[in-house]
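S.,

Sequence below, as promised.
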Amino acid sequence: MHGFAEKWNMSVRWNWVDALKSELLRSSDANRLCVIAVDWAELARGGLLVANYWRAIDNMQLAADLLAPYLRANQLPAEQLHCVGFSLGAHMCSILGKTYSRLYGGVKLGRITGLDPAGPFYANKPSSEKLTHTDATLVDIVHTSDNFGLAETNGHMDFYPDRGPSAIAACDTDLETRYDTYENVVLYEEGNGDAENVVKVTLTEAEIEEQGGLDRLTVKSILGRIGAFFDKYFAQKPKQVFTKLHQFFGCSHLMSVRFFMSSVNQCYFWSRMCASYEEYN
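The prediction came back faster than expected:
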């Protein structure tokens, strides 16, 4: 389940939905899987011309009202349904689970995996409006961002890779050296999707620090700094479009997807059960 202002077949940034689908279908259980990529892009955007986060949140119930009967009509056993949602998509899975249970006699979905559930404006929401452990028989959550994500332990199992959202090791380096170059470039030549036309921009540690840090920016500070960033890089190449907000402002947010994908077919992660972060330390 994709998140806010995303779609199921993204073309100008990492198409993680398709990548996850391919990873799932490489598994030994592929012949018994039915992978459904839910396209709720128009509702998840919240507006035709300008994305509206608050309206997208309101639209989740409409999407759930359409999706729950679809799953039921196709006779997909609820106990075998596994909803995987990233960011706002994690809460979308929650609303789907609640709706399915309400419509069909309290029956729960088998599993919900929340990949860094969206945090902005969710901390004070009641459990009826966000992902919680009662939404499915098993709810597991991967937390990787301390600004874009919700750090609450709302699942049956909550995972905090690299000792917590503020310490995602893979996001400590500059943008050019993170993972493969093509997926993590900052600027993308408009109208071209081939690697030869990708323009790389390397941000030094000083420049990153000047922006306030990659993953510690508040909504207010982000809005105040985007203009300066555009002026700096777009003045040289006006046809380039900025398509990597996650990579510049929230590398760690999207890392939740990478961690989950890496666990599908060859899970080498070790974890330690703790009642709190203080107990871990």
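The CA atoms of residues 127 and 154 lie 9 Å apart.

Coffee later?
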